Amino acid sequence: MSSICFISRNGLHEESPNSTRCFWVRLKIRYAGPVASTLKKREEIVDMDAGSTLRDLLEKLVDSHGKWLKDEVLDDDRKQIRDGALVVVNGISVARLEGLNTQLKEGDTVALLPWFPGGG
User: Fold this and answer.
1) Number of domains in the chain
2) Is residue 13 part of a domain?
3) HEC profile for 37-61?
4) How confident is the prediction along the chain (120 residues), in pLDDT tens digits per residue?
5) Nearest alpha-carbon partner for 100 in 87, 118, 85, 114
6) Range of the domain at 78
């Protein structure tokens, strides 16, 4: 049995027959500080399955960029955002949303802002 699924490309949804994944969302990921310096980029576009969570996105980014990224953002037991790191979805801290279980949707912007010393 074949189903027709849709893939988001450049903001358009195209039919994709013979796909096992139905409905994708396109996200903009923004980086700052040491993460941006290490990756040598400040943002990228990532496609995810609809219904994906922040945890799913972080796993995909770690697969793409390496385990060091998980160490920058997550605490030692990998169950929460590291103290001092700020992860925001559409300008709202995930601490005010559902943390790593925050569901992501088409067009969301996720920013990873690792801990910065100083302040005052």
Assistant:
1) 1
2) no
3) HHHCCCEEEEEEECCCEHHHHHHHH
4) 333 455 545 545 555 555 544 478 999 999 998 889 999 999 999 999 989 999 999 999 999 998 888 888 888 777 888 888 899 999 999 999 999 999 999 999 999 987 655 544
5) 87
6) 24-113
